[in-house]
Write a structure and sequence with these properties.
alpha+beta; Arc Repressor Mutant, subunit A; Beta-Lactamase; 2 domains; five-stranded antiparallel beta sheet; two-stranded antiparallel sheet; 10 helices; 44% helix; 16% strand
C-alpha cells in the first residue's frame, strides 16, 4: 500500500521567535553598512531601543557584534566576518542564477539565458525557453558577438578597455575575412564599429545599467541584458532576455527591462555582491 503524504509536512515549521527578532537587528545593521548608535539601530529595525539592547549584549558575547568604547556605536564583529567569508566561498553564481530563470521566463513570456565571460567571450551556460509557443533558437555554449549583441556589449562595458579593444579588432578582422552570405529580404549584419563608436555604446550601457539589441545579429529578434556583480563589484554573469521583436518591449524602463534588472539584482545580493556595481 503506497505511503500517504503526512499533512503535517505541509504545516509551517516551528521556529524560535527570539532568533528571528534578533535577525531583524542584524538585517538593520547589514542594510546600513556602517556602525550605528543604539537609537539609530532601533529606528532602522523598527523596534524599541530597550528591546534591542539585550540582543546586542548577547551578539557581542558571541562575536557577532562589537561596540566602540568611545562613540558607543555598534558594528559587526569577527564572527560576522567569518560567516560572511564562508558564505562568499560557498556562493555559486551560476547555481543562484539558474534558480531564477524559470520564474523570469514565466513573468516576461520570453526565453532567458545566463552567460559568463569565457575564453571566447560571453557564453551561454544556462537557458530557459519561453513559455509561449514562439521560441528563439539558442543553446548552451553559444558565444555572443562582442559588438553585435546585448550580452556582448554588457560584458564589454564592465571589463578592461584594452582587453575589449583587442577583441573588437579581432571581431572586425574575422567579419572582413568571413563575411556572412547575402540572404534575400534579410538586411546584412551590422559592421563591427570603430573603437570610438563602440566606446559611446558602452557609456550608454553603464548609464542605464542594461544593454539592449534591436535585431542586430538575428533580424526580428530583440534582447535586453543586465549585469550580476560579485562582492568585488565585478560582473560575473549576464542575465539576458531574448524574444521576437514584434512582442518584445525594448524600452529602457519597460516591463522586460524592469524584470531583468530586478532578477540580476536578486542574484547579485544572493552571492554577496552589489546591485549596481
Amino acid at each position: 500500500m503506497p505511503a500517504q503524504d503526512d499533512p503535517a509536512d505541509e504545516r509551517p515549521q516551528r521556529g524560535i521567535q527570539s532568533i528571528e527578532v534578533g535577525g531583524q537587528v542584524l538585517r538593520a545593521m547589514a542594510h546600513t553598512g556602517q556602525p550605528m548608535a543604539l537609537k539609530d539601530l532601533a529606528r532602522e529595525a523598527d523596534m524599541p531601543a530597550a528591546k534591542i539592547h539585550p540582543y546586542l549584549v548577547s551578539f557581542a558575547r558571541i562575536g557577532l557584534m562589537e561596540q566602540d568604547p568611545e562613540s558607543g556605536r555598534y558594528f559587526l564583529g569577527p564572527l560576522a566576518l567569518q560567516l560572511g567569508l564562508i558564505s562568499l566561498k560557498q556562493a555559486n553564481p551560476v547555481q543562484a542564477a539558474a534558480a531564477e530563470l524559470p520564474g523570469l521566463a514565466q513573468r516576461i513570456g520570453h526565453t532567458v539565458a545566463i552567460a559568463v565571460w569565457g575564453s571566447r567571450g560571453a557564453t551561454i551556460v544556462r537557458l530557459e525557453e519561453s513559455p509561449a509557443p514562439i521560441h528563439v533558437n539558442m543553446r548552451q555554449g553559444t558565444v555572443f558577438s562582442l559588438a553585435g549583441t546585448a550580452t556582448g556589449r554588457l560584458f564589454a562595458a564592465y571589463r578592461d578597455a584594452r582587453e575589449i579593444k583587442a577583441l573588437l579588432d579581432d571581431e572586425r578582422r574575422r567579419q572582413k575575412s568571413h563575411p556572412a552570405p547575402a540572404i534575400a529580404n534579410v538586411p546584412p549584419a551590422r559592421a563591427v564599429p570603430a573603437w570610438r563608436e563602440f566606446e559611446r555604446e558602452l557609456v550608454e550601457v553603464r548609464e542605464h545599467g542594461l544593454a539592449r539589441s534591436d535585431g542586430e545579429t538575428l533580424p526580428g529578434v530583440n534582447a535586453i541584458a543586465a549585469p550580476v556583480f560579485d562582492h568585488e563589484a565585478q560582473v560575473v554573469l549576464a542575465v539576458t532576455a531574448i524574444g521576437p521583436a514584434s512582442i518584445f518591449d525594448l524600452a529602457w524602463r519597460g516591463a522586460i527591462a524592469r524584470e531583468v534588472r530586478a532578477c540580476a539584482g536578486r542574484i547579485s545580493r544572493r552571492i554577496g555582491g552589489t546591485v549596481d556595481g
